[in-house]
Amino acid sequence: MKVAIIGTGNIGAAYARALAQTPYEVVIGDRDPGKAAALAQEIGAQVEGGGIAAAFKLADLVILAVPYQATAGVLAQAGDVKGKVLVDVSNPVSADFKDLVVGLTTSAAEETQVAAPGAHVVKAFNTIFAGLVAAQAREGRKLQVFVAGDDPGATAQVRALAQALGFVAVDAGPLRNSRFLEPVGMMNIQFGFFLGAGPATAPSWAHA
User: Fold this and answer.
1) What is the CA 174 to chain-centroid distance, rounded?
2) Percent of the chain beyond pLDDT 70?
3) 20 to 30 A from 191, CA-CA: which of 37, 77, 149, 202?
């Protein structure tokens, strides 16, 4: 399976590097194709890089590794997304990282599904900081990735991808449960950057 990473920032680069170490084929897309090509070249010859539309066209599964506010712009350049699995890793945070700009009655993931009705949107990885994506950053720890979506085939693909990266994939139910997962991601940001825990923190759900 070919996976597209959209975005070349800290999060996008982290997933591109980590997935390049798995059996998945990787393509990187960015609104600046030169940045995507440069990151792909840095990672290795097995990774492709270019524009957003090309990355979407090549891939079966697309990780939207961009801020929530940039998602609409990405989809505007994506072309036909019918049948694609779109993984929303975002938390819809305010500019100061202290509030959510979407929540309670909807979520970033649900709004992305509305904007891309032909795609299968899955919420996942929003509680994982970029520095924890690489397997070596988590040695001795099994971190959970919560996966929510409405299409069973799509969520199964995303759980398999999470497991290939060395995470414990947790079925978090339908896409509407993103309304609850995104506040968990926001609380993780609070712990990591405002309450002194640092960016090596991640939530875990225990079943007693």
Assistant:
1) 17
2) 100
3) 149
How far apart, in whole angstroms, are the C-alpha atoms of residue 28 and residue 47? 8
Q: Kind of pairing, strands 2-6 and 47-50?
A: unpaired
Q: How far apart are CA 105 and CA 66, in angstroms?
A: 22
Report H helices in 20-99.
Answer: 33-43, 52-58, 71-78
> For the segment 49-87, what is each residue's pLDDT rounded down to a tens digit?
999 999 999 999 999 999 999 999 999 999 999 999 999
Asked if 159 and 171 count as a contact pair (C-beta separation under 8 A), the reply is yes
- Phi, psi of 205, deg, nearest 5: -100, 125
Q: Where are the beta strands (DSSP E) in the chain?
A: 2-6, 25-29, 47-50, 61-64, 85-88, 120-123, 144-149, 168-171
Q: State pTM to two decimals.
A: 0.96
Domain that residue 51 falls in: 2-193
Residues 134, 124: Cα–Cα separation, whole Å: 16
Domain count, the chain: 1
Question: Per the structure block, which two tokens stand in for 89?
Answer: 């890793």
Structure tokens, 2: 């070919």
Which CATH number covers residue 85?
3.40.50.720
- Distance, in Å, from the CA atom of 132 to the CA atom of 2, rounded to the nearest integer, reads 22
Instruction: Give residue 83's identity as a one-letter amino acid code.
Output: G
**DSSP 8-state symbol, 199:** T
